[in-house]
Design brief:
This protein has three domains: about 60 residues, OB fold (Dihydrolipoamide Acetyltransferase, E2P) (Beta Barrel), CATH 2.40.50; about 190 residues, Rossmann fold (3-Layer(aba) Sandwich), CATH 3.40.50.150; about 80 residues, no CATH class. About 20% of the residues lie in helices and about 30% in strands. It has seven helices and 20 strands. The strands form four sheets. An eight-stranded mixed sheet has the order 6-19-20-18-17-14-15-16, with helices on both faces. Strands 1-2-3-5-4 form a five-stranded mixed beta barrel. Strands 9-8-7-10-11 form a five-stranded antiparallel sheet. The longest helix has 17 residues.
C-alpha cells in the first residue's frame, strides 16, 4: 500500500496512516512517500517495511554505513545528526506528555548534550555466526556481519581488535571492551576479567560484564550533570540506587557528608567497595540489595539518585522513594517510556520536574538517555 510518513516514534520507526490505521515503518523518514508491506498486523496498528521509495523525504541522506537498514543497530543514519537530535527531543516531550501526564507548561526546557556521532562505544556485546562478527538484524536473531570498514559506532580500536579474534574461542554473544590504556578484552577465560576506567579523576575497576556507560565521549559530562543536579552540601546524605561499581556514588561523595550505594549485582558492589578504597573515599557504604528491599526509614537522605535498567523502577521502589521523601530525586534513564510512567508516582506525591537533559549516549540509534531532577514542592 502507499503511505506518507508524517512523524517518528520511540523505537526509531516512522509513522503514517492509511484509512485511519497507524503504520510503524522501519527506516522511514518524515516526508517520505512509500510503498510498504505489513509484516505484523494488529487491529489498530501495524508494523511495516519499505518495499519502494516513491518520493524520498527532503531530509534523507546517504547513510554512512553500507549495511544500514539491514543491521538492526542503528535507526537514524539516513538523516543528518542535528535532525536526529530534533526527533529525539520531540519524542521525549511526547512521552512526558502522554504516559507522563505532563502539560507542556510543566515540561522544563530540554538541555541537549551530544558529542561525536561515530566511534563512541568503548565496549559492546557482539554476535557471532559462522565466521563473522556483527549485530542482529532488526526484529530477528539473524546475525548481520560487520562491513569491511567495521561498525561505525564502535571505537576504531575495537574494530581493529575484532578482526584478530579467534572464532573458535568465541561464543554466539561476546562482550568486548577497550580500557583506558587501549588494552583489548573479551569475554573468555584467557582474557583479563577486570577493566580499568578513569573518569573525572576517579579510578574505577569493573568486571568486563558489569554495567558501565559505553559512550567514551560523554561519560564525564554525565557525571558533571548528575553532580550539578544533586547540588549536595557537606551536611547532606545521598542514596545511589543502581550504583553498579560506584560510578555516581564515588564522584558525588566528596561533596556530601555521607553516601550509600545499592545494587542487586553482587560483583558490581564488590568492585564499588574496592573502588572506594582505591580512591581513598571513606564516606560511602555499599550494599548488595534490591531497590525494592531498601528500608525507607533507616536512612535519611536529601538526594536520591536512581539509574535503573530499561524496565524502570518497580512499584515497590517508587513507594520506597516516596516514603523517604527526599528533597531531590535525580533520575537517570535509558528508556523515557518507563521513566514517564515512573515520574507520575512522584508528581502525584508532591514532586515537580525541575531540570531535564537529553544526553545522546547512543547516536545513530533509537535509544534516548535522559538525566532529570524532580524537587519536592
Amino acid at each position: 500500500m502507499k503511505i506518507s510518513i508524517t512523524d517518528t516514534t520511540f523505537g526509531g520507526s516512522g509513522i503514517g496512516r492509511v484509512e485511519g490505521k497507524v503504520y510503524f515503518v522501519d527506516y522511514s523518514v518524515p516526508g517520505d512517500t512509500l510503498i510498504i508491506e505489513s509484516f505484523k498486523d494488529r487491529k489498530s496498528f501495524s508494523y511495516a517495511k519499505i518495499r519502494e521509495i516513491v518520493k524520498p523525504s527532503e531530509f534523507r541522506i546517504e547513510p554512512s554505513c553500507p549495511i544500514f537498514g539491514i543491521c538492526g543497530g542503528c535507526s537514524y543514519l539516513n538523516i543528518e545528526y542535528d535532525r536526529e537530535i530534533e526527533y529525539k527531543v520531540n519524542i521525549l516531550k511526547e512521552l512526558l506528555h502522554r504516559p507522563g501526564g505532563l502539560e507542556e507548561k510543566d515540561i522544563p526546557e530540554v538541555n541537549v548534550e551530544k558529542a561525536e556521532r561515530s566511534g563512541y562505544r568503548s565496549h559492546s556485546l557482539i554476535k557471532s555466526e559462522g565466521e563473522g562478527f556483527g549485530l542482529y538484524k532488526k526484529r530477528t536473531n539473524d546475525v548481520v556481519p560487520f562491513p569491511g570498514i567495521g561498525c561505525g559506532i564502535l571505537s576504531p580500536q575495537l574494530n581493529k581488535s575484532i578482526k584478530n579474534l579467534d572464532h573458535k574461542k568465541i561464543s554466539r554473544e561476546t562482550r568486548i571492551a577497550i580500557d583506558r590504556s587501549g588494552n583489548f578484552l573479551y569475554d573468555k577465560s584467557d582474557a583479563p576479567g577486570e577493566i580499568d576506567e578513569y573518569e573525572c579523576g576517579i579510578h574505577y575497576k569493573r568486571e568486563l560484564n558489569g554495567f558501565f556507560q559505553a559512550n567514551r565521549y560523554l561519560r564525564s559530562r554525565m557525571l558533571d550533570i548528575v553532580r550539578e543536579y544533586s547540588d549536595l552540601t557537606s551536611k547532606d546524605t545521598f542514596i545511589d540506587i543502581g550504583c553498579g561499581c560506584g560510578f555516581f556514588t564515588l564522584y558525588l561523595a566528596p561533596d556530601a557528608a555521607m553516601g550509600y550505594g545499592f545494587d542487586v549485582d553482587r560483583k558490581g558492589i564488590e568492585h564499588a567497595v574496592k573502588n572506594g578504597v582505591l580512591n581513598s573515599i571513606e564516606n560511602v557504604k555499599f550494599y548488595t540489595l534490591s531497590s525494592s528491599e531498601i528500608h525507607p526509614h533507616k536512612v535519611k537522605a536529601e538526594s536520591v539518585i536512581v539509574d535503573p535498567p530499561r524496565m524502570g523502577l518497580t512499584k515497590k521502589t517508587r513507594q520506597t522513594i516516596n516514603a523517604m521523601s527526599p528533597e531531590k530525586i535525580i533520575y537517570v534513564s535509558c528508556n523515557p517510556s518507563t521513566y514517564s510512567r515512573d515520574i507520575r508516582d512522584f508528581i502525584c506525591r508532591g514532586y515537580k520536574l525541575d531540570r531535564l537533559t537529553m544526553i545522546d549516549m547512543f547516536p545513530g540509534t533509537h535509544h534516548i538517555e535522559i538525566i532529570t531532577r524532580l524537587v519536592k514542592v
